[in-house]
Design a protein that fits this description.
Blueprint (H helix, E strand, L loop, with lengths): L13 E2 L7 E6 L7 E6 L3 E8 L2 E8 L5 E7 L8 E7 L7 E6 L5 H12 L3 E4 L5 E2 L4 E2 L2 E2 L47
Parallel strand pairs: 6-9
Antiparallel strand pairs: 1-8, 2-3, 3-4, 4-5, 6-7, 7-8, 9-10, 11-12
């Protein structure tokens, strides 16, 4: 995406492609001149460029400095949300970056999980009061889930069969081994 151009797709939605990094885009910045900042987003780092009071500055941060990828709902508290977005959250709210925004909720979970996987950050959900929480239990970088049953063979019906029948049977030698005598061997020699 080039500076000053709109994203591909619908004009109602902001969508950055997580698989075409690095990408450069504009984001809103209330403290900057012209209320805009330029963001260079890479897999390992993020560069924020803005101008404040005529002074140009660039802030280079690692992706690990961000808290995670959050889903935020926008609208009135007692009504249905008017917009939903996926945001790269920082401890300083002024440094948080929108990655996907749309009035529709069709692709929001897929976008949220894809950005979390690509950037290697935890998935977060924004509560009504603005606090962030993790929807899944984690142990370090490992997500914890309920254990699943052991998968046997490649059949869905295998779960219903006793495991004793799934064991291999030992081979048995014949009582009288088969011996071939007086036959000509066919061997290619040359």
């Amino acid at each position: 995406m080039k500076f000053g151009r709109t994203t591909a797709g619908s004009s109602r939605a902001l969508r950055l492609d997580p698989f075409s990094l690095p990408v450069r885009f504009e984001a809103e910045d209330l403290a900057a001149d012209g209320r805009r900042r330029i963001v260079d987003l890479h897999r390992e780092r993020i560069v924020l460029r803005r101008s404040v009071g005529g002074m140009r500055m660039a802030l280079n941060m690692p992706v690990a400095a961000f808290r995670g990828i959050a889903i935020r709902l926008y609208g009135q508290p007692d009504q249905a949300p008017t917009a939903i977005s996926v945001v790269l959250e920082h401890t300083d709210p002024a440094l948080s970056l929108p990655l996907f925004s749309s009035p529709d909720t069709d692709d929001i979970v897929a976008e949220w999980q894809t950005w979390g996987r690509v950037l290697g950050l935890p998935l977060l959900v924004a509560e009504g009061d603005g606090t962030l929480r993790e929807p899944f239990a984690r142990l370090g970088q490992l997500r914890i889930e309920a254990p699943t049953w052991r998968r046997r063979r490649r059949s869905t019906i295998a779960r219903r069969r006793p495991s004793r029948l799934l064991r291999r049977q030992p081979g048995a030698l014949a009582a009288s081994p088969l011996v071939h005598r007086g036959e000509r061997e066919i061997i290619a020699r040359n």
